[in-house]
Amino acid sequence: MALNFVKYLARQKGSSLEATIAPKPSVLHPREVLIRVKAVAINPADYKMIDQGHRVTDWPLVPGLDGAGVIEQAGDEVGDFMIGDRVLALFTPGDRSGSFQEYAVVEEKDVARYPANWSPEEASTLGVCYLTGIMALGIGLKTPLPFLEGGPILGLQPSSVLILGGSSAVGAATIQLLRLAVPECRILATSSPRHHDHIKNYLGADDVIDRNSSSLPFDAKQATPGSQGVDAIIDVVGAGREQRDIFEALNPNGAKIYAQVWTGDEQIDEPDSVNSIMFRGRDLPQLPGNQNIVHSLAQLLEGDKYRLPLPVHHVGHGLSALEKALELMRYGVSGEKLVVSI
């Protein structure tokens, strides 16, 4: 095996990525695995860390939250994985564990096998959006999560929910997870018309509304029983910042929850009568069963109960493709997941 490998890092806030040669890392703790990274998926958080220093404490930084590859080394107490297993993982930006490199070390709890008929490029897209969707339901709405071992078993079971940003990776994940968590819930989502078929007929939403509709709140209310409105809104793209009348889609007699994913901006203000909950990655310890999130994903994949959220846009291979993918993400991506092979 090679003694050295390539990692892609940003030297300081706002700098471009560069390739550098480094010693190959080794497993240091008994519950870690070493992954030969084959593909990484790009998230908005990646460019925000590089450009703005969000959540970065040390430079240089090896970015990367999502990825997939092959296990090359396993700690002595790793029980569920073997050398050669094809896995996806939740990576941690940094020198040893960021996914923008050929080899990365990850804790066993953050690793899952993926279906044999999937490519590493497809598998790399699952982690962050699945994690965020779990948090949207478990922390944002406080719904039961029956598929999460040790997860909440009591809580709100909404009769209807509007997901703003249904064609985003997080929106696509949340639609599927909400269907699993509360099967009878009427799920509405917004997107541009070109994504409606995917959201409704592939992901399983009950209705999809044009995100640019001048009557969006009315359209959403009309899609609920008795035109009463939705019990909750999950905003995964910060749409409520510009769409200020969206709160009119809420049922005045319902739970009136507005769950917003932190996108790096200030919390979106809501009317006094609305219960607004913003959640961030650092809130994960609040969720019962949080140590089993990736394991629950593996079980759903094995049982064919969770589908690839979005089509993959394979940008290319290596440093130039990473820079191109980050630039595409800066301009905004909808209905697809950007992936680079390493």
UniProtKB/TrEMBL annotation:
Keyword Oxidoreductase: yes
UniProt entry keywords in alphabetical sequence: Oxidoreductase
Domain Enoyl reductase (ER): 14-340
InterPro entries named in the record: ADH-like_C, ADH-like_N, ER, GroES-like_sf, NAD(P)-bd_dom_sf, Trans-enoyl_RdTase-like
MF (Gene Ontology): oxidoreductase activity, acting on NAD(P)H
SUPFAM superfamilies for the chain: GroES-like (SSF50129), NAD(P)-binding Rossmann-fold domains (SSF51735)
Pfam family, one: ADH_N
UniProt record similarity statement: Belongs to the zinc-containing alcohol dehydrogenase family.
Protein name: Enoyl reductase (ER) domain-containing protein
Organism listed in the record: Penicillium cataractarum
